[in-house]
Specification:
The protein is an all-alpha fold. The protein has two domains: 22-101, no CATH class; 106-180, no CATH class. The protein is 68% helix and 0% strand. It has nine helices and no strands. It has helices spanning 2-24, 29-39, 53-70, 74-79, 83-101, 112-117, 127-144, 148-157, 159-177. The radius of gyration is 25 Å and the shape is elongated. The N and C termini lie far apart (107 Å).
Length: 191
């Protein structure tokens, strides 16, 4: 009986130690907040810079949650070589996931004001007209590229795919608004 009573404090100490270790395997509020703050550096990315503040909070919480699930020990994660690459990979895959989830999210890559400034769309379209355009555009992108990764690689790597994307934008504008888009090459001659 004495042995059992003497072992109880040791067992209690071990149990407390295991509980303490398991709590360290989850990020605390300060660590999550620090990660969300560090994600603000990604606001200049094409997709992310078009998110309003509320959308960005949801986006950064999603990224921080994925990082926490993949790297449960925060202190090990922030000391890990290549930590920035891991964060960037999760940011990009989150963007791809959001684009796959809703074609209207294409508006974050090709924002409406940008398309107006490029002469692709007229100013003053209502949200339903914009949604129709982005749905058409996403359908054309999905028909041309088998995966979202192919789409991103094409956009980043090749200007001929950029002109193909411009053709898709113009086709959608023509389909929805009855426009005829004609591309004109302008040559400037200087003496």
């Amino acid at each position: 009986m004495k042995k059992i009573l003497l072992c109880l404090p040791v067992l209690a100490l071990l149990a407390a130690g295991f509980t303490g270790c398991s709590q360290q395997r989850r990020w605390n509020q300060e660590q999550r907040k620090a990660m969300r703050e560090s994600l603000r550096g990604y606001r200049q990315m094409t997709y992310v810079n078009d998110l309003n503040d509320d959308e960005f909070v949801v986006f950064s919480d999603n990224v921080a949650g994925k990082l926490e699930n993949s790297y449960p020990v925060y202190t090990t994660f922030v000391r890990m070589p290549g930590m920035e690459d891991s964060v960037e990979m999760v940011v990009v895959t989150t963007v791809v996931d959001e684009l796959n989830a809703d074609p209207h999210n294409m508006r974050h890559i090709y924002p409406y004001p940008y398309l107006v400034s490029q002469g692709v769309l007229p100013a003053g379209l209502d949200r339903q007209q914009q949604r129709s355009f982005y749905s058409c555009f996403a359908a054309k992108v999905n028909a041309r590229y088998a995966t979202m990764n192919q789409f991103f690689n094409a956009v980043l790597a090749d200007t001929t795919d950029s002109s193909a994307i411009r053709r898709m934008e113009n086709e959608c504008a023509n389909d929805l608004f009855g426009w005829q888009i004609t591309e004109v090459d302008v040559l400037e001659v200087t003496d």
